[in-house]
Every structure is written in structure tokens, then in C-alpha cells.
Here is the input.
Amino acid sequence: MLWAVAGVATLGFLIALEIAARRYGLPGPMTSQAQEVIFAPKSGFLLYASMGLMMLVLTWRQRFIALGVAIGIDIVFVLVRWALDAKMSFGNGALWVVLGCAVIALTRRTGNERALLLKGVGLGLLLVTGRKTGDTWLLITSKTRPMVLDPYLAAADHALGNPSWLMGRLVRATGPVGTHLLDWVYAQLAVAAVVVALYQLRKVSVERRFPRHHLVRTFLVIGVVGPAIYMIFPVVGPVFAYGTGAFGTGGEHWAIANLWPDTPPPIGPPHPVLYDEITPRNCMPSLHTAWATAIFIHSRKGPRALRFAGTFWLIATLTATLGFGYHYGVDLIAGVVFALTIEAALRSFDRGWNRAGIQMVAYGTAVFAALLVSYRYLPMEMATHPWVFGPLLLLAMASVIHVYVRTTRLWEPATAPTPRPEPQPEPV
Here is the structure.
């Protein structure tokens, strides 16, 4: 019943977003996904990652068959595109296999096996649809929010020492090697999430059921709820609002000034500024930070290599978001609080709401709201008193982390002490 309700709600949301996108002459998430059945996909890695999630419900023999079919279909598509001199890409085969498994579930499976295969297909499709939904949200923000609030965050960021400006110079100093590595990490965040999810869901084919909570759920909820905050607090980011950027991207003539990353913006009374109808207003909060935080949290129960990868992805993502000028430092603090609040809410929903869970979610929500209000109405105070507000911002984030850790530890099953063997009488 829960899966059915979630499916209907998701379908209704996608239809509403499709209609909203069409009003602005844009393709919605459902149209964009349908086009990738034939046309070049935007991310072949993401489509194969979604197929990997779907294959968790299959046997090893079925997995090899599915992978072989996907690769074979992709080879045919690549040859046809090469012959027609069309844009080269891959991933259509993975999408065809996922859709084919949906048909098999409906026509060749019954009972629990049908439900399990459909859940796997739904999980895989939700991953790619979530990406399309996010892209549509970003286009809508650029069309519906002409005024941006970057001067407010730029002023508030003085309390943290303008970390985006500092990190931008450091990343530029690393040269093309560091830049390309960080760009790859930033772009393939969803693939990193799939790697962690594959570990969490590795027993599905044996147990024939999904665990109650896993990373994909948190990832999708962050992606659905986060863009709503973009509409409330539209921000384009330092590289767009304050210069053409160190890496050949930026706001050009729409920029307030060409300052990033060499010269921090001067302290002055902030005000909303007009921006173009193309650049997404996707800074507050930093969803890349929220997603990377979720990956870090869910990798803690894995083996050492997975824990190391989760830590690396979090640090590299934070470095990239600041170093490429996509976010201000205050965005990252809000992103961490946002991720922990959603993670706590999902875990509380699974366990049944209790006092500790309610208090954690309420506290995280209150801190997140206080951050947004402070960025909007106290930026000058934050800029002129950095030694007061800087530690306060970090303390607010640290307090949410502390409450989250303390609350989730209460939910962990107590480890029974290992019984000690009783001494045996020695033979005389």
C-alpha cells in the first residue's frame, strides 16, 4: 500500500511539473526521459547506475544477461550514430533493459516476484527521473525568479572569511589536473550514491525484500524538497554574480562586478539584483553538499574502502562547490543542516515517531529556518561582526550534527556483552 501511494504521489508530482515546464516552453522530466529511449542520453553513467540498482532484484545469471543485452543495444546505437554523424553517447541500452524488465514483471511474473521486480524497476527509474526533475526545477527557477539575492549571501559570507574566494584561488593553483578531478567528482555525485546504495541493497536478491531505509530514499527526497527552497531564496552563485570566473564560466555582463575569485566583494547594504532567464537559482541550500553529506552518513556502516570513499567524496564535493564558485560558504552550512534533518525525518518515519525523533527534526528545521532568516535580514551585522557570527554559524551546524549523532545512537541496537566462559575445575 505504501509503495502504491508513493507511486501515485510521484506520478502526480511529475505530471504537475511537466505541465509547469510546458507553460514556459520547456520539456518536462517525463518528456526528457522518454526522449532518451532513442536520442542521445545526457548521462550514460547514470542510466547504467540505475540499471545496476534494478539488477539487485535479479539472480546472477539474469544480471549477466541484462548487462549483455544493454551493451549490445548500445553498440548498435553507437554504430548508427557514427554512420549518421550524430552526437555520440551511450546509455540507451541500459534504459531499454530497465523498461523491458518492467514489461516482463507485468506479463511474466506474479505475486511477490512481480512486486519485487517492479520495485527494482521503480527504484532505477526514480534515480534517472529524479535527475530530470531536478533539471526541470532549475529551468523553472530561472524563468520565475528574475531577481536574485546574491548580495545578501556575499555579505553574510564575510562572517566565514569568504571561503569561496579563497578556495577558488587554491583550485586555480592546482592547474588542470586538480580542476578536472574535482569537476568529475562534482558531476558524478549520483554515481557515487549508487555505489553506496549497491552495498546497502546487496542482499535484496537473497532476502527477496528491500531494507526499510537506504541512501536512495534520502537522495531522492533531498532532490525533491530542496528546489522548493530555491524558489524562496533564489541565488545564482559567486562565479555568476561576481565575475566571469576562473575557468571560463560565469555571469559575463549580468554580473554585479568582476571580482571572483581574486577580490572579495566590498561590504555594503545588500539588495536584490536582476539576472538572466537562463542561469539556475540553485545555491540556497547547497544540494550537492546535502547529497554528499547523505553519502558520507550512509557509508559509515560499510567496509573501510567504502568509508574512505564516502569521506573523500564529501571533502572533494565541498572543495568543488566552493572552488568553482558555485556556492558561498553559508550555502554549505545550510546544506549540511538540511541533509541531517531530512535523514532524521526518514529514519523516524521508518521507526515510528518518538520523542527523540520529533525533537531532532524540529530542531533541525528551526536551525535551518533561522539560517535563512539570518542570511536575509542580518547580512550586514554578520559582515561587520565576523568574529561573532562566524563561530555562531559553525556552532549552529555543529549542534545539529551533535543532536543527530546523539539521537541516532539511541536507535542503534544495544550490543550484548560477550559471555565470558566460566572457569572449569582443574583435574587433581
Remarks:
- Residues 98 and 207 are 21 Å apart (CA to CA).
- The mean pLDDT is 87.
